[in-house]
């Protein structure tokens, strides 16, 4: 059976269009896992620019979003909850503003935008962060899948 060209073009358009849409489930998971207060329906609770360059989501991603993407590439079996947990545990400073991503999540600044960073002294903030539970406070409520492959 021959598929009309216009149907192939429509399918291609749908695939491309769906891949550039913001991922509300990712945002909702981040809001819950990072303990952000407020309505998840409001961008003021967590802006798309938390991970994306543009406030409409989609490509390109900011350095923090790129860190999450890198976690997915390194751990193909991870879901978003595992990736968020892994990036927090890495204590990396994705936007290189002197504050680790997890500290910025704790302080509610943007971990992927060097122009947004905590006003609090790094040492003082780190002490408060560790007293609150450190990176473990952003652990997923779901267990990360175990890699059972034998290719070490
Ligand atoms: Ca930072």
Characterization of the model:
Helix 2 (24-33) packs across helix 4 (80-90) and helix 3 crosses helix 4. 26% of the residues are buried. 43% of the residues lie in helices and 0% in strands. Mean pLDDT is 86; it is low at 12-22. The chain has one domain (23-138). It is an all-alpha fold. The chain has six helices and no strands. The structure holds calcium ion. Calcium ion (CA) is lined by residues 93, 95, 97, 99, 101, 104, 111.
Poorly predicted ranges (pLDDT <50, ≥5 residues)?
12-22
**Head-to-tail CA distance between termini:** 46 Å
Q: What series of H and E elements makes up the topology?
A: HHHHHH
Question: What number of structural domains do the residues give?
Answer: 1
Write a concise synopsis of the structure shown.
By secondary structure, the chain is an all-alpha fold. The chain has 6 helices and no strands.
Topology:
Elements lengths: L4 H16 L3 H10 L29 H12 L5 H11 L10 H7 L14 H10 L21
List descriptors:
binds calcium ion, 6 helices, 152 residues, globular, mainly alpha, single chain
